[in-house]
Amino acid sequence: MITTADQALLRRAIGLATRAVTLGDAPFGSLLAGPDGTVLAEDHNTVRRDNDITAHPELKLARWAARELDPATAARTTMYTSCQPCGMCAGALVRSGLGRVVYALATEQLVELHPAAGDWPVVAQDGPDLFEEARAPIDAYYA
């Protein structure tokens, strides 16, 4: 359930997205709020500026959280983001241990507003293969 306090922080994330556009960056902004609602970190998309396809604010903040927050605090931390995290960012959010994500715009809504946002090709994948060879470094690491 999204509260009025959540909406205030969502508006701040939307403000970060708006600021990103004025700086020539893509229109996405995110922030992390601690258990008491205090903003811990915030960022916006810098994919173009940094020439880095991973420079999404959600991913940058997930890395920050994993590095800077202990697991118990991370689990009580909420990310507020102007748009629903993409698959890359969603995976990082799971690994970061954050407890909650609140977003303003769903992916379907983004694609409806800007169809090219959903125009990603499918990358062919083949496998699995060479199980015994591939398991050796895994077994060695986890031994």
From TrEMBL:
Domain CMP/dCMP-type deaminase: 4-121
SUPFAM superfamilies associated with the record: Cytidine deaminase-like
Source species of the chain: Streptomyces orinoci
Pfam families referenced in this protein's UniProt entry, alphabetically: dCMP_cyt_deam_1
Domain of life: Bacteria
Record protein name field: Nucleoside deaminase
